[in-house]
């Protein structure tokens, strides 16, 4: 019985060693039996020494076998992997998975500060050119005819009213609006001005008319899709003046035009009105050319910011150009996503230690109510960083730009919400680029007062200032940079003029303790050239095989809307030019 207990303890000790990551070559020896008087146990002890039990012999033989197997295993590992020190290396985190950018910055700062090499000329930064194909004139026919939904005299008759509810932030709503125009074209429906759902994250109660010019939207789409502000009274009476009583169709994500014709159109013809809610990403990117045209028309022509937003944005653009007189009025804009909610949501680890972890855990719990504590959710901060999912810190963005050749006289517009621990994380960026401006520093408190508490309206101001910068820097994915890159391609002859860092490469460089400033600069200059080349990419589109977003890559389908050598400022701010209220 004592031998059995000893074997159990030995096996328990072995298992605990395995959990810690290593194994012992033999089980621990059993404890010595308690001592008793010699007269009582002497004969028994002599018998045990002279005639060992069968079980004890088995344990000794098994121990020798286990020891031999362990030695063979270690020998094989040394032959396959290398010296024993290599085995220890397997337990270390992989390169790039740990945030050490602040250490690299402190090491390289003397070289960065003393770097007096020639700075980039913003006027000649973008060198990659591509001859774009001559565009055909835009279609101007009634869209419903292309689907056989109406023929002859019936072509002017609509099938019913379409109500769409857009959710999310500014640019997710923008996507829903453009898709709604396209779906109205597919169904030959009358589109009611889209409704905006109140979002718990953005917390902006703005309606369509608070952000966009309704009159311009309706007039621009006239002849393509009929748009009205509200439903007729007789329709409202039929449903008790309650839109939620109207038939709602839950359309699957990325539904095709064929799906809308087959499943949605018959319901609309029968009921006369339908709701589509939710409506985020409910239309495929692969749709016929005349439907893509509706998306282009809505995005680049019909959606114009309201006068309140346009006037302030126009003033800030003008002030940024004045601040950038050294570079001919050209400036760099950065969409910095190192905000509290984004840092928390990413589940990435920076250099704040235990205090940072406790703080971000609290933010995650407050904002997402246990989402990150589910048993089926595995959080791997190191893997997130290696895969480029971590928001770049202001320090990392600054090092990248200085490495590319932007010097400390570069004027930068920072488009961002509230930066996480701003005083701490913005300090290194300000050391590298002292000429940094925001909407708060360029506008007066009186000018900003009407925007207080309206995140989408403030985002619209940032969107406009970034749109007219010579260089746009995106640091994290999302609808804002995707729409902005596409809009810039549309305005600037197909070139997005955008720096999109290769974060997979960047994290490796910013953890390399042996890297020199010269070596880092060479890598960043190569990254800049690659961004120049990618900025002019035009996807190959053949009928229904589009795999990229038309909002990010608007060409070739939206090319018929481009104006030859026209003022991009006029294209965006027609209201200001016509009314004379802009700068």
TrEMBL record:
Q: Which residues form the signal peptide?
A: none
Spell out where the chain crosses the membrane.
70-92
List keywords of the entry alphabetically: Carbohydrate metabolism, Fucose metabolism, Glycosyltransferase, Membrane, Transferase, Transmembrane, Transmembrane helix
Molecular function per GO = glycosyltransferase activity
* Region called Disordered, residue ranges: 23-43
Specify the superkingdom: Eukaryota
* Biological process according to GO: fucose metabolic process
| Origin organism lineage | Eukaryota, Viridiplantae, Streptophyta, Embryophyta, Tracheophyta
Q: What is this protein called?
A: O-fucosyltransferase family protein
Q: Which organism is it from?
A: Eucalyptus globulus
Per the record, the similarity remark reads: Belongs to the glycosyltransferase GT106 family.
């Amino acid at each position: 019985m004592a031998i059995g207990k000893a074997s159990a303890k030995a096996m328990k000790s072995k298992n605990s060693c395995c959990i810690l990551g290593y194994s012992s070559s033999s089980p621990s020896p059993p404890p010595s039996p308690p001592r008793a008087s010699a007269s009582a146990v002497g004969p028994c002890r002599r018998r045990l020494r002279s005639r060992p039990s069968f079980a004890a012999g088995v344990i000794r033989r098994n121990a020798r076998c286990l020891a031999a197997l362990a030695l063979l295993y270690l020998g094989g590992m040394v032959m396959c992997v290398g010296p024993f020190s290599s085995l220890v290396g397997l337990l270390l985190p992989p390169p790039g998975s740990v945030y050490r950018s602040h250490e690299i910055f402190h090491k390289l700062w003397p070289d960065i500060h003393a770097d007096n090499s020639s700075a980039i000329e913003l006027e000649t930064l973008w060198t990659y050119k591509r001859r774009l194909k001559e565009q055909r004139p835009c279609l101007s026919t009634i869209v419903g005819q292309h689907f056989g939904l109406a023929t002859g005299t019936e072509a002017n008759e609509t099938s019913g009213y379409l109500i769409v509810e857009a959710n999310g932030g500014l640019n997710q709503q923008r996507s829903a609006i453009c898709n709604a125009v396209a779906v109205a074209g597919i169904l030959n429906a009358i589109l009611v001005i889209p409704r905006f759902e109140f979002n718990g994250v953005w917390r902006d109660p703005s309606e369509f008319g608070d952000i966009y010019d309704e009159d311009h939207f309706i007039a621009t789409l006239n002849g393509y899709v009929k748009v009205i502000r509200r439903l007729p009274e007789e329709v409202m009476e039929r449903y008790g003046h309650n839109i939620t009583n109207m038939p709602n169709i839950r359309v699957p994500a990325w539904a095709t035009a064929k799906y809308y014709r087959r499943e949605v159109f018959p319901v609309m013809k029968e009921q006369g009105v339908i709701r589509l809610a939710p409506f985020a990403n409910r239309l495929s990117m692969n749709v016929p050319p005349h439907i893509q045209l509706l998306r282009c028309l809505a995005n680049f022509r019909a959606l114009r910011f309201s006068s309140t937003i346009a006037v302030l944005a126009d003033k800030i653009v003008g002030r940024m150009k004045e601040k950038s007189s050294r570079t001919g009025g050209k400036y760099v804009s950065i969409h910095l996503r190192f905000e509290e909610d984004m840092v928390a949501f990413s589940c990435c680890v920076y250099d704040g230690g235990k205090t940072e972890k406790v703080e971000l855990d609290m933010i995650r719990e407050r904002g997402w109510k246990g989402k990150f504590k589910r048993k089926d959710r595995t959080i791997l901060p190191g893997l997130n960083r290696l895969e480029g999912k971590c928001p770049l810190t202001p320090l990392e963005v600054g090092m990248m730009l200085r490495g590319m050749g932007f010097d400390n006289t570069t004027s930068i517009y920072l488009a961002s919400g509230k930066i996480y621990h701003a005083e701490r994380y913005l300090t290194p960026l300000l050391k590298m680029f002292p000429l940094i401006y925001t909407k708060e520093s360029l506008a007066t408190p009186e000018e900003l007062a009407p925007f207080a508490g309206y995140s989408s309206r403030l985002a619209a101001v940032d969107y406009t200032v970034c749109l007219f910068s010579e260089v746009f820097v995106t640091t994290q994915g999302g609808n804002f940079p995707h729409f902005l890159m596409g809009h810039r391609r549309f305005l600037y002859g197909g070139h997005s003029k955008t720096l999109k860092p290769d974060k997979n490469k960047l994290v490796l460089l910013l953890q390399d303790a042996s890297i020199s400033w010269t070596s880092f600069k060479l890598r960043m200059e190569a990254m800049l050239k690659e961004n120049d080349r990618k900025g002019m990419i035009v996807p190959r589109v053949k009928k229904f095989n589009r795999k990229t977003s038309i909002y990010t890559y608007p060409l070739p389908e939206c090319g018929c809307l481009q104006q030859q050598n026209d003022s991009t400022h006029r294209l965006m701010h027609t209201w200001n030019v016509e009314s004379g209220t802009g700068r």
